[in-house]
Amino acid sequence: MTSALEKYYATNYSNCNLEYNFLASWKGVAYPSHVFQFISLPFQIFAFYVIIFKTPVAMKNVKTPLLINHLFCALLDLLLCTFSTVYYFLPMYGVFFVGVFSWFGIPNVLQILLVWLMMMLTGASYVYFFKCRSSILVQNKFRITRQKTRMIYYSLFFIPWMLTTYFEKLIPEDQDAARQFALTLHPCPTREFFTSEVLIILADNILIERFIWIFPIFGVYFASFPLFQVSTLIYYICIAPSNTISKDTQQRQKVFLFCILFQIFIPLIAVLPAGWVFIVYLTGRYYQTMMNVTFCSLGLHGLAESIAIVTVHRPYRKAVSHMLTEFKKRRRSIKVLPFLANHTRHSVTTGQ
Fold first, then answer.
1. 109 and 171 in contact (C-beta within 8 Å)?
2. Contact by Cβ (8 Å): 292, 29
3. Domains in the chain: how many in total?
4. pLDDT in tens, 4-28
5. What CATH number should be reported for the domain holding residue 199?
């Protein structure tokens, strides 16, 4: 800490009377995130196995998009829960990381860009998943068939990532002055603000007022891509199905559509706390515990996504059920073998 921050910590901060709260501390976001990743990893690996080896012929068109989507979801979880676990001060626009990368001295700016990029790649994998499904429908007039058009389409999705080079210039060079300014916005942060290498992203009231609305604008922009693809799927499958396919095929398409929508909806529940925190913040209230719980809940996204994959789709459910049945049979056979061996040995000994 600089002398000014040390003086503030020794005098003004003592008047805050903040009680220790595990969930509000760095441990409250680091430890649960690491535990969630430890629990999620076996499920993620199992989902990879099911997609690769248990995908039926009827689902071969979505095997690759589903695999890509699951890969980026797993990588995002690995980043947020293990390598770049985020501790964020919303009122002050400050951030530091408590993951593995911080142990090796990876700069905060680089980790922010990495997390932002991985979030965008995960979002793009959802768009790719729905686009591949909608492209299969011959009657779809919005199909993207040309490679050039496809590249333009995805380039539009990554415009916010390209703009990060501009936002990076807004980060104050004088971080000591920026941290003192941040204390005027939120005089009583957790002790981590003083004991950690916090990076203040914005230190200007005008920029902060404008920056607040960037989050919902970007959210609407990102959501428009998958929502457009979902809308075309719903329209051409449920509202205006092709007359050239049988009723049975139409019914199977509807069932599969509802399955993939349900599959996507389940992990998105883990993202809802982020919107709640933003709304509470706009009302003038903020609790660090809420922010930490939000980032912990994001760590459950991959677990929910993995479970959704193997439970929503009927072929995968049948494959998992078959594997569990075979596993139980093997366990029973392993238990029976020692009994038979002992019984045979006893028969030989007694002459029976």
1. yes
2. yes
3. 1
4. 888 888 888 888 878 888 999 999 9
5. 1.20.1070
